[in-house]
Amino acid sequence: METTILPTISSNNTTMVTMAPQGNVTELVFMQTVACKAISGLFTWAAILITCHQIYKHLKFYTIPDEQRWIVRILFIVPIYGFDSWLSLMLFNTNDRYIYVDTVRNCYEAFVVYNFLCLCYDGYLGGESAIMAEIRGRPAKTSWITCTCCMAGTTYSIATLRFCKQATLQFCFLKPPLAIITLILQSYGLYRDGDFNVHSGYLYITIIYNISVTLALLALAVFYQATREILKPYDPVLKFFVVKSVIFLSFWQGK
What is the Cα–Cα distance from 184 to 181, expressed in whole angstroms? Predict the structure, then answer.
């Protein structure tokens, strides 16, 4: 708190100096300005409208249901993430009610990871039997980029595919309970975003979340390495990168 020096005259004509506190001076950061909220709102609603149009087109021309059902589910992540981010900005430093919308977003986040695997697994490649007919017995491909160096010297088997599916599913099953626990901790004042204090639930939920999401993304990387050749006609590299980026980076952008 800043103070102001105020001179006063006492009864014996002695000048005295007193310190008068000034009011708190608060400066708005850019995220709290009307301009920021307007710009973000413009892009958010543009993205939502464009994505909803794409979803409408998929549903109108629903000619390849084995692929389009997964694509439509994945596309819904754009309006859900966009609206949640915009709402969080609108409520920035005012209240924590956006946490309830975050809960829905967090649960759908896990759903997207699983749906992307299913899109490649069932939509593009025709299921477990068709995939195994192509990759059974092949030496496992390794790369430090996809963190699969630990698979050196092994071959692809049915266990490889099941690991990919189970590692992805654990993230889907774990995310909703974590979201509910977050709400409970917040109601008791034991959770605050960005607070890494050992007495805060945020620290432990963040650790559990990152272990779970890393395992899920590793499973996607293993699956991509195993099926890269047969997935090539569908050009999944960019899709895989986008899914990994949206899920992993979005968690940390506001921390």
Answer: 5
- Range from 45-54, 76-85, 142-151 carrying the lowest mean pLDDT: 142-151
pTM across the whole model: 0.74
Q: What is the CA radius of gyration of the chain?
A: 26
pLDDT band at residue 247 under the 50/70/90 scheme: low
Retrieve residue 39's tokens.
């710009």
CB 121 within 8 A of CB 131: yes
> 4 φ, ψ to 5°?
-115, 135
- What is the distance between the alpha carbons of residues 4 and 131, in angstroms, rounded to a whole number? 76
- The amino acid that residue 52 corresponds to is C
Structure-block tokens of residue 227: 């099926």
CB 44 within 8 A of CB 83: yes
Q: Which helix (H) or strand (E) holds 11?
A: none
Contact by Cβ (8 Å): 58, 93: no
- 62 has a pLDDT exceeding 90: yes
Question: Which phi and psi angles does 153 have, rounded to 5°?
Answer: 85, 0
